[in-house]
Amino acid sequence: MRTVLVTGSADGIGRHAAAQLIAGGHRVIVHARNEDRAADAKAALPGAAGVAVGDLSSLAGTTALAGSLRAYGRLDAVVHNAGIARLDSSERELTGDGLESMFQVNVLAPYLLTALLPQPGRLVFVSSAMAAGGAVDLADLQFDRRPWNGFTAYSTTKLLDLMLAVAIARRWPSTLSNALDPGWVRTKMGGDTAPADPEDAARAEVRLATGTGPGVQVTGRYFTDRDWQPDGTVLDPALLEALLAHCADLTGVQLPGDEQGGPAA
């Protein structure tokens, strides 16, 4: 039995993943952004070990979420499933922290949560095939100066999620840290015409979080059914370290060194 946190598990792929983990006998903590959605998650997933509430569009909310999660002890796995998309937006949307909303929820929140929690055994960052269309500029990650394009901005956050997974895999060799493209899935975000079943997408998350065998006991990988893989440019170690430093500057929290002191297992 593993203790697993699935963020954004009030509905969509996250709820399916949490349900599958519970059915598999695991101790599962589900997450919702507010109390109303937490009540929905609790009703839908009565076998969950707990429901954690925290608004990932707020630095204070994410920090408080990490504090509440410490009551569960060291987590075996964290699935960073929560995310938002504003593909057709005509202009940037800022959070209360003055940060671009997709960047804060999709990238900065999983970084901050990871940095604040005791180092887990596994990390799963949910990326997207749209990462292939991302355009990383560390001097302008939030599109302050570049012309705004919601599609490109979202794609960039998904590429940054992939980069975070690899960067943390390098920093924490005793944690299995990987990124996953779940496909175009029939959810509120993906729409009713999407071809992929959320149950199948959830199984991919569960496999990376709890599976055994050489296929999943790896680290620093991007799992996808598509042909595209990131090239060495975006996975350059110096760029990855610069991304971690940028996230640390924005949050005021450094990602600590490897607490386990050994190779991933």
- Strand line-up across the major sheet: 3-2-1-4-5-6-7
Order of helices and strands: EHEHEHEHEHEHEH
Number of strands: 7
Q: In angstroms, what is the radius of gyration?
A: 17 Å
Distance between the termini: 16 Å
- Largest pleated sheet: 7 strands, parallel
- The general outline is globular
Extract low-pLDDT stretches. none
Q: Beta-sheet strand percentage?
A: 5-15%
- Overall pLDDT level: 93
| Alpha-beta classification | alpha/beta
Helix count from the secondary structure assignment: 7
Share of helix, binned: 25-40%
Characterise the protein shown here.
- With 265 residues, this protein is of the alpha/beta class.
- Helix content is 37%, strand content 11%.
- The chain has helices at 12-23, 35-44, 59-69, 101-116, 150-171, 198-210, 237-251; strands at 3-6, 27-32, 50-53, 77-80, 122-126, 176-180, 222-223.
- Strands 3-2-1-4-5-6-7 form a seven-stranded parallel β-sheet, with helices on both faces.
- Helix 1 (12-23) crosses helix 6 (198-210).
- It is globular, with a radius of gyration of 17 Å.
- The relative contact order is 0.15.
- The model has no long low-confidence stretch (mean pLDDT 93).
